[in-house]
Amino acid sequence: MPSALPLSAVLLSLLTAPPKAPAAATKDVGPSPQVAERLIGAALTEGHAYARLAELTDGIGPRLSGSEGAEAAVQWAKRSFEADGVKVWLEPVKVPRWVRGEESARVLASAGRFREHPLSIMALGGSVGTPAGGLTAEVIEVRSLDEVAALGDKVKGKIVFFNHAMAEAADYGKYAGLRTRGASVAAKAGAVGALVRSLATASLRSPHTGAMRYEDGVAQVPSASVSVEDAELLHRLLVGGPVKVELKLGCKTLPDADSFNVVAEVKGREKPQEVVLLGAHLDSWDVGTGAHDDGAGVTMVMETARLLAKLKPAPRRTVRVVLFMNEENGLRGGKAYAEAHAAELANHVAALEMDSGGGKPLGVALRAGPGGEELVRPWLRPLEALGAGKMLPGEAGGADISPLIPARVPFVGVRVDSSRYFDVHHSHADTLDKVDPKDLAQSTAALAWVSYVLAEVPGVLPRPEAPPSEAPKAPAAPVGAPKPSAP
Amino acid sequence: MPSALPLSAVLLSLLTAPPKAPAAATKDVGPSPQVAERLIGAALTEGHAYARLAELTDGIGPRLSGSEGAEAAVQWAKRSFEADGVKVWLEPVKVPRWVRGEESARVLASAGRFREHPLSIMALGGSVGTPAGGLTAEVIEVRSLDEVAALGDKVKGKIVFFNHAMAEAADYGKYAGLRTRGASVAAKAGAVGALVRSLATASLRSPHTGAMRYEDGVAQVPSASVSVEDAELLHRLLVGGPVKVELKLGCKTLPDADSFNVVAEVKGREKPQEVVLLGAHLDSWDVGTGAHDDGAGVTMVMETARLLAKLKPAPRRTVRVVLFMNEENGLRGGKAYAEAHAAELANHVAALEMDSGGGKPLGVALRAGPGGEELVRPWLRPLEALGAGKMLPGEAGGADISPLIPARVPFVGVRVDSSRYFDVHHSHADTLDKVDPKDLAQSTAALAWVSYVLAEVPGVLPRPEAPPSEAPKAPAAPVGAPKPSAP
Asked: What ipTM was predicted for this assembly?
């Protein structure tokens, strides 16, 4: 600590001291209120995170794994960390390379019932294409995966239309399985394709893409999302009798491509081998510019690294930022990190992923052993004026850090308001204008402080039990799913 | 009146009698409270308007003038009036035939500044196409038509980007001129094309089309709307330096086509030569299904005709419903009606157009001579429980009835809540799901009662003065503009 602190800082230090002095206060002061002032003040006033988000979204744009945009984002992130004086390196990741083609769909006219309707659709990521001339089949509507099997032979030769009732962000987890698994479930019952109602909380005829996966040994049938409006149209038309749809998808999967996780770190002053991992994912879908998903997370963790790198002395432990590649359609970056760093995971004292958009901060959640909350809660007071100074129920998580679960790495979540996240998620509308610079700055401030606390607090979070059913390296979250939002 | 009225009806009659007995009450009872009960009850409970709207939007879909959809809508409307027992005929209208083609636009990459971006655009109705390979030019941003001239030579060879600040429905009139006139104003200054920020109050990267017109003797340059998000992107990119856009529009204008106004009427029992005209427009844009614009208006006036046709005795005057063709891109139907019926316009005692969407009713507005309000106000009490029992400020109007202004036909408006109308107006998202059946039923009820009052009330509205500047037959409202919404 400098000896000539201004009086105001000393007063602030007294005012913002945690309610209970931490255990080793006399010889080890722990997280410093002056640092709270510096980190939160800088995050709220300097506007770096939003400026970086504009570079990433307006400057680079979409960055699906294996694309030129993804490669440009890797180089941009590396240059940016260097410009910030943060040590950075690239770690290789082989990524799937899926490309969208021309795509369209229409309801064919039914004499005496209705004229032709175009459908607003987008291929789901990973889908095979249709034959060049498209495929035409009757549509059969279901509301769940189980219903497909129950329909038996009625599904044969049809396009299965997975309808659902998503109304709010919290519903995403309920219905995401229709998108990821629908095509294979339908194909097993003899279907020739799948249409999935977009997982969206707002729509202006705007389809939302996302990952789907084929099960091994099952016929691969084309699968696309359909806008909420067109899902409702299909539902209404089906009430009156058979409905035929023509689907044309030009998408395809190319050979795997070379890409990278971008890893940066601020070395710890006292326990450099202990790592606090801050993650976000650099890839996005190929539509929109991935502003909320996950440009916001990327720029929040980058800005946290920049601010922590300026602290003198450095925090006690190492803070490592990982910009994962391929969260959206493969999780190869998350898996590659867990493999490459297997030997040091026992020293990962916390992992935190920002991947729920750039909304305002709400509080902190944990996935840790008993006593974890008691370690963190005393240090949340500096976030009270941001409305984020509380522990929240629900487990922290994140798709890219889910491969760290078998190693029992404690997870921390800085939760943000995701109530409008699924208005634009995975759609053309996920663009810079949707991110409020105030919210982004406030969540960056919360993240910077929580990250510093984790790196500086004398104790470490107790490690959670590994779930008994957890197979090593299997992701806990569905591919492409953000970590659960606060209720 | 039947002599064996149930007691409840008699009581209702007493309860809902207008506050002041109309002048000729002893020998001429005027609008009947029992009819209020019947019309409002039927409109609110029978669901005909919404069922018809589903037929028009889901069954027929888009219906741009001259298209197969427009012709199908004409035949559907004729059949529907016949099924309702309402006399109907077709009146010929020659309409422009504009067809959209393949269309796309992109911001070209600028080395070191930004990568390529697709732009979400739609050709404006009436625009010429670009050369097949597209046109590429630098973009120059302006905020008004006047600004184009002020820029002088800087506009030469460029695409003029008309940006604006539309935030709410009431702003539509402020900025609609950029869309209708922008291309010619730009071309006069040497521009090669025009991009106009969508006139929208919500956006998920969704462009909104609409009519544009070329001035005689001015070079015709291609003109497209651009989504709000992409307008903001262009604005941000232009801050950093030159921005080049490639625009490809495959649209074109074919020879005029034969079409029709659909005219239906309920003959008056006492003054059949006096006409209360109820208008709406049957054509829509070629995207979406024209549910709010103007399927809602069409089905409200059709349902009003059906309910009035069932009254015995019929209303005193003739109620004539006109489903105009070509409101969106030419107003040929409105002009054709005024010409074909020129001889009887002196007997048009009121004209009313429903063309602000299917929102809930708010009240009644007029464009009449002094004393008009006093004639109407006493009869609005039956609409109080619907929240629509009041006179509203602002003049009534409507694009299709604007050619009746020189004949000094009094205008009446049943105003509806249009606050969310421009979220979907002229876009792919103007679909059935956007219309609330409750709101549509309530506005239909209000329209049915007001129409009956106009046809039954002993006196007639005083005729307004013709505006001194009004050239005969010139439309008062811009083409494609809905009548002004209530504030």
From this structure: 0.91
